[in-house]
Amino acid sequence: MVDTEIILSWVLRIGMFAGAILMTVGFFVGANVILLGVFVLALTPFVRVLMAGLCFLSQRNLVYFIISLYVISVLVIGTLLRL
Q1: Residue 83: enclosing H or E segment and its boundaries?
Q2: Is 74 helix (H, G, I), strand (E, B) or coil?
């Protein structure tokens, strides 16, 4: 079984590199691609918490899964209140 920390580190790496690449390409293509890169960077922590929750659920660690659900709900509510 793959270690949880390795999965989460890859999620963060992929999100960071994807956002950076999109923003770099956006300098040559247009502002919409830059905004997409910023959106990917902003979405990366949410995906990380979601993946952590799924990893904890697969390990049957319900305490940390519930904590992950709480963090996801705080992130979603905070984002919705900004709109």
Answers
A1: none
A2: helix
pLDDT at 3: 85
Quote the CA–CA distance of 64 and 21 in Å, as a whole number: 33
Query: Distance between CA atoms of 22 and 38, rounded to whole angstroms?
Result: 8
Q: How far apart are CA 37 and CA 18, in angstroms?
A: 7
d(CA 40, CA 77): 19
pLDDT given for residue 1 in this prediction = 59
Low-confidence ranges of the chain (pLDDT < 70): 1
CA–CA separation, 18 and 44 (whole Å): 10
- Taking the C-alpha atoms of residue 35 and residue 14, their distance in angstroms, rounded to an integer, is 17
Mapped to the 3 state alphabet, what secondary structure does 11-65 carry? HHHHHHHHHHHHHHHHHHHCHHHHHHHHHHHHHHHHHHHHHHHHHHHHCCCHHHH
